[in-house]
Amino acid sequence: MSGNWQRRWQPLLQQWVMISARSAGRPWSGAIPNREAKLTPAHDPDCYLCPRVIRANGTTNPDYAGAYAFDNDFPSLSFDAPVSDTDAEEAGHAQSLTRTAPAHGHCRVLCWSEQHDATLANISDAQMRAVVRLWQAEYTRLAQTPNIANVLIFENKGVEIGVSNLHPHGQIYATSFLTDTATSMRDAQVEFANTHNGDSLLVSLLQDAHTQEHLVVEKNTHFSVIVPFAARFAYETWIVPHRHVSNLTDMTDTELDELAGVYQRQVNRYDVLFQRSAPNITLLHNAPCSELDADKNKQCCFHLAFHPPLRDAEKLKYLAGFESGSSNIVNPVQPELAAEQLRAINVQEHSA
User: Is there a contact between 228 and 215 (Cβ–Cβ < 8 Å)?
Assistant: First the structure.
């Protein structure tokens, strides 16, 4: 199968990705991630996310169990941000080279478990389903909040990602504006629907013959795990629904339960592949929620993306000179071979 030294089109982001499988075999004398497992306590009194601990702002966490959410004490966005005279003036001057705008929004912290040493790969089925229900509840509430245009749920996991706290947790940024990525993804899906008789770009990509034959890692009743044809990361995967569903709110209980199981099996695959609790960036791409563009938003299909930073168990993927200067990512692993490796990993069901 030909796939080396090839550019592939990423339809959601409208950009080219370079597949250069031979670059993975280069001699390596750079940084090597530490794979030694460190003993982690079940409860850390110095961790601001553990139950009963006093956080930096003086708030005491409740003695919670399971999934728990609260407002970020150090938010990157806030509706308390004032609108300056400059903001108001520049809003009507699209040609200004010094435009500004307020960074309005809400930031939330989502703890997956009270156990400091837990991960989404090793919590029980019941706990994982509770996490997915928390995703849905938080998305639904924030999407219905006035002046919120987009809700991004994400997890940064592992020291390689640069997380400030290793307690199992994720975050939400609910923004008053559409992020650049959300804008690109929506525009691409709207254009595809307009030129393909209303078809869903994500569902069409999933149903594509090449995807079905070479890129599926796992297929269930309601969701499939795939390596995208133009994967930007060596072992990037997406969880894609079999029907066009715009967001978590619109999913049935059956779909949510299956999503929990599919998600957990995939993070377990990463742990097996990289031979440790694997670092990852996970992104839940729901449709934008601005009422002004409701018709456009309906064309957007939910998907969940994993962006693992490792190219193999001992090497991190860095975005260095060419990629930083060109915005064309170079993937050192052919997506079809990545899917084959992930598909071959046997993951066990968890107990409830």
Answer: yes
